[in-house]
Automatic annotation (TrEMBL):
It comes from Falsiruegeria litorea R37. Catalyzes the folate-dependent formation of 5-methyl-uridine at position 54 (M-5-U54) in all tRNAs. NAD-binding protein involved in the addition of a carboxymethylaminomethyl (cmnm) group at the wobble position (U34) of certain tRNAs, forming tRNA-cmnm(5)s(2)U34. GO terms for cellular component: cytosol. Its cofactor is FAD. The gene is trmFO. InterPro entries: FAD/NAD-bd_sf, MnmG-rel, MnmG-rel_CS, MnmG_N, TrmFO. Gene3D superfamilies: FAD/NAD(P)-binding domain. Residues 6-373 form the MnmG N-terminal domain. This is Methylenetetrahydrofolate--tRNA-(uracil-5-)-methyltransferase TrmFO. The lineage of its organism: Bacteria, Pseudomonadati, Pseudomonadota, Alphaproteobacteria, Rhodobacterales. It is found in: Cytoplasm. It catalyses: uridine(54) in tRNA + (6R)-5,10-methylene-5,6,7,8-tetrahydrofolate + NADPH + H(+) = 5-methyluridine(54) in tRNA + (6S)-5,6,7,8-tetrahydrofolate + NADP(+); uridine(54) in tRNA + (6R)-5,10-methylene-5,6,7,8-tetrahydrofolate + NADH + H(+) = 5-methyluridine(54) in tRNA + (6S)-5,6,7,8-tetrahydrofolate + NAD(+). Its EC number is 2.1.1.74.
C-alpha cells in the first residue's frame, strides 16, 4: 500500500517539506488551515506567505551563515529559495522578494505537483498513526497547541519567546570579564566557573540605566498579548520600575570576586552563560529585551568587557510557539514519545523564514526516506543545515532553550585559524568552504542511497 505523508501547515517549512518529499516520489497531503482559520499576522490563504518583512536576509554565501543556508537550499533544489530567486527585488546584498507573487508561485508550484494535494483544514490533534510532519509555526492554532502541550507537558511547549542577546565568546574582553559561578557553587571546576561576569562601577551602572530608559523600543504587534510579563520582564521595563531594580535582579553583584581587581566590590555585575555545548556562544542572563536592534547593540556595548561584542543574535520577545526540542525530538526531528510525528520549522526552535524552510527541507527528506525505506546518511554537522539541526536536537542547552538563528557560533571551529575580529574573514570563508563541501557530499550520497 502506498504510504502518504501528511504535512500540517503550509508556511515556509511545510511548503518546503512537501516539495522535497514529493520530489523524492512520496505522495503528500498538505493541510493548511488558512483561509478558513486565520492568524493575527497572515493576510492571505497562500502557501509560503511571508508574515512580516519581505527579506530572506543576507545572500552572501561566503561570509554569512544565512547566505550559506541559501546556498545549501539552492543546491538541494529548495522550493522556497528557487522561488525567491524568481521574484527577487533589488536589495544590495540581501535576498528580498516581491512577497505576493512569491507566495502565489509557491502555492501554484505545489498545487501543480502531481504528488501534492492541498487540503484546507485545521488539524487539532496529534494522530496515533500514519506519517506526519507538523510545521504549524509560531502561530500554531490554539487547539493544536493544547494537543501538543498535552503530549509533551506544559514545560516543554512555550507560547512566547523571551530571547536574551547571544554573543560570540571570542569577542568578549577577558581582561575585564572573568569566569565564576555565584558563591563558587558547584561540584566540579566547570560548574564553579560556569558564568562569565562583567563588572560595573556606580557611574557605569547609572549611565547604563539612563541609556536603557532612553533607548528605542519595539511595540507589540496587534494581537500579541503581554500576558507573559510576570515571568520574564524586559530589562528596560525593570529599569522603568526603579533604578535599583536590575541591581537586585539579573545584575546583582553578590557572591562574586573580580580577579582583575580583587579589592574593588562591583556595584553591579552582568552575567553571561554558555549557550551551546561548543562553548562558542554566551547569552546574557535575564536580559530579554524589546529594545530595537540598533539601540540594543549600542546599549549592551556599554557593559565592560562587551565593548567589542559581536552578536550571534539580538534579544526579543514575541508571540511564538516552540518546543523544547533538545529534550523532545530525536536527531530525525521525530517526537521521541510518538515517532510517527515529526516537527519542522519555527516550532522546533529555529527562528526566521530561512531557518524554518531549511528545517522543513530536512524533515521532508527524512520523512520521505523513512517511507521509501532509504537510510539517509547523517546530516553533516559542518554544513549550515547540520549545525542548525544539531543545535536544536541536542547541542543547545535544554534548560535555557530559546529560538535560534543560524550563525557561525553553531559551527565547530576550524583548527589553525586566527581568532578575534582580524581573523574573521578567513575564518568565515573556511567555515563556508567546509560546509559547501560537506553538504554537496551529503546530497550526492543521499541521491546514491535513493537510487
Ligand atoms: C508577527 C510575526 C512577524 C514575523 N516576522 C518575521 C520576519 O520579518 N522575518 C522572519 O524571517 N521571520 C519572521 N517571523 C517568524 C516567521 O513566522 C517564521 O520565521 C516563519 O514564517 C516560520 O515558518 P513556519 O513554516 O515554521 O511557520 P509559518 O510560516 O507561520 O507557517 C505555519 C503555517 O501553519 C498553519 N497552521 C497553524 N496551525 C495550524 C493547524 N492547526 N492546522 C493547519 N494549519 C495550521 C498556519 O496558517 C501557517 O500557514 C515572524 C513571526 C511573527 C509571528
Amino acid at each position: 500500500m502506498t504510504q502518504v505523508l501528511h504535512i500540517v501547515g503550509g508556511g515556509m517549512a511545510g511548503s518546503e517539506a512537501a516539495w522535497q518529499a514529493a520530489e523524492m516520489g512520496v505522495d503528500v497531503v498538505l493541510h493548511e488551515m488558512r483561509p478558513k482559520v486565520e492568524t493575527f499576522a497572515h493576510q492571505t490563504g497562500d502557501l509560503g506567505e511571508m508574515v512580516c518583512s519581505n527579506s530572506f536576509r543576507s545572500d552572501d554565501d561566503e561570509q554569512n551563515a544565512v547566505g550559506l543556508l541559501h546556498w545549501e537550499m539552492r543546491a538541494a533544489n529548495g522550493l522556497i529559495m528557487t522561488t525567491a530567486d524568481t521574484h527577487r527585488l533589488p536589495a544590495g546584498g540581501a535576498l528580498a522578494v516581491d512577497r505576493e507573487p512569491f507566495a502565489e508561485t509557491v502555492t501554484a508550484r505545489l498545487k501543480a505537483h502531481p504528488r501534492v494535494t492541498v487540503s484546507y483544514e485545521e488539524v487539532t490533534a496529534l494522530p496515533e498513526d500514519g506519517n506526519w510532519i507538523f510545521a504549524t509555526g509560531p502561530l500554531t492554532s490554539p487547539d493544536l497547541g493544547q494537543a501538543i502541550q498535552a503530549e509533551t507537558g506544559a514545560e516543554a511547549l512555550a507560547f512566547f519567546d523571551a530571547i536574551a542577546p547571544i554573543i560570540y565568546a571570542e569577542s568578549i574582553d577577558m581582561s575585564k570579564a572573568w569566569m565564576q559561578s555565584r558563591y563558587d557553587k558547584g561540584e566540579t571546576e566547570e560548574e564553579r566557573t560556569a558564568y562569565l561576569n562583567c563588572p560595573m562601577d556606580k557611574d557605569q551602572y547609572e549611565a547604563f540605566i539612563d541609556a536603557l530608559l532612553a533607548a528605542d523600543k519595539t511595540e507589540f504587534h496587534e494581537g500579541e498579548t503581554a500576558g507573559y510579563f510576570d515571568g520574564c520582564l524586559p530589562i528596560e521595563v525593570m529599569a522603568e520600575r526603579g533604578r535599583e531594580t536590575l541591581r537586585h535582579g539579573p545584575m546583582k553583584p553578590v557572591g562574586l570576586t573580580n580577579p582583575h581587581q580583587p579589592d574593588v566590590k562591583a556595584h553591579a555585575v552582568v552575567q553571561l552563560r554558555r549557550d551551546n555545548a561548543l562553548g562558542t556562544l554566551f547569552n546574557i542572563v535575564g536580559f530579554q529585551t524589546k529594545m530595537k536592534y540598533g539601540a540594543q547593540t549600542q546599549v549592551l556595548r556599554m557593559i565592560p568587557g562587551l565593548e567589542n561584542a559581536s552578536f550571534a543574535r539580538l534579544g526579543g520577545i514575541h508571540r511564538n510557539t516552540f518546543l523544547n526540542s533538545p529534550t523532545l525530538l530525536d536527531d530525525q526531528m521525530r517526537l521521541k514519545s510518538r515517532p510517527n510525528v515529526r516537527f519542522a520549522g519555527q516550532i522546533t526552535g529555529v527562528e526566521g523564514y530561512v531557518e524554518s524552510a531549511a528545517m522543513g527541507l530536512l524533515a521532508g527528506r527524512m520523512a520521505a526516506a523513512e517511507i521509501l525505506g532509504i537510510n539517509l546518511p547523517q546530516v553533516p554537522q559542518d554544513s549550515a543545515m547540520g549545525a542548525l539541526i544539531h543545535h536544536i536536537t541536542g547541542g543547545a542547552e535544554a534548560k535555557t532553550f530559546q529560538p535560534m538563528n543560524v550563525n557561525f557560533g553553531l559551527f565547530r571551529p576550524v583548527d589553525g585559524l586566527k581568532g578575534g575580529r582580524r581573523g574573521r574573514k578567513d575564518r568565515y570563508k573556511a567555515y563556508t568552504d567546509r560546509a559547501k563541501s560537506a553538504w554537496s557530499d551529503w546530497l550526492e550520497h543521499s541521491a546514491l542511497d535513493a537510487a
